[in-house]
Amino acid sequence: MADLEAWGEAGKTYTIHEETLSYFGKSQQLGFRGYSEASPEEGRAATLRRSELFAGHVDFAGSETQFVVPCEGNDAGVPVSVYKPADVSRVPAIWVYFHGGGLVVGSRNSYAPMLNRARCMVVNVEYRLAPEHKAPAAFDDCRAATRWVLQNKTRIGGDAGSQVGIGGDSGGGHLATSVSHDVKGLAFQILVYPITDLSLRAPSYAEFESTPGLNTDLVRWFCGQFLVDESQKKNPVLSPYLRPSFTGLPPALCILAELDPLRDDAVAYLQKLKEAGVQTELLMVQGAPHAFFHLFGHFKELTKEPYDRVVEFIKRFQKD
User: What pLDDT is recorded for position 319?
Assistant: First the structure.
């Protein structure tokens, strides 16, 4: 009962899944602190530990190769990991993925188990993080990585006919929504609870102001880490909802968590895609919190349909 009480009015409005309640209970028992209570380095270490505890394990049969993508303004380049399953299709789809973490925490390593379930080629991108690298650094890195993949499909193990899509969750979804507007030639996009408007005006921000996990207070903290100043919130690169046109964007699958301050923000963005004639699909996962998607070791029931949908969606863009 105490765990449910932590959700306040939201706990009375929504049916919170048992996996959600037990996840936060276990996190508390293990001593995980909120990101705003720790340094970025501590937060990154905690994210990796959380992944090790809750993200499960996949016995990946295939190859993993490393590349460093050149990027203007980033002398070190953008490291990427390319996963190619042994049983991949003859002309595989290539999914360029940007990990979550509010542009502050997260890494390729913490997302590898999830991405090794995708049944296609995956390019896992290690973009620069804030506060060391303020926006638009991460956006520049992800844009460069995506263009590079489109130009180097055979070099990384794909086929000249491979179709390339992008995706990401949370902060990674934020990056993917922006990149989809700037990079031409993409076949699909998979957006998992992205933030698309930094004004934070959508109704769900009020509903989940101080609930467990990612709440509106924490979203504000993340924004404060990666923004140079408040004026950037109105920059359409950082707030893709403000983009002047949505015409011609690739088909989109959007997966959202019901118990998430970012929920209504993403729904409004998806509506703009629909109005522009973009093929869109929405899966709202009832009773799920933000960040459940890559923690399939714990959220076994809540991730089943989303993972099936992702695999089915990507299949449309590859040939046997």
Answer: 87
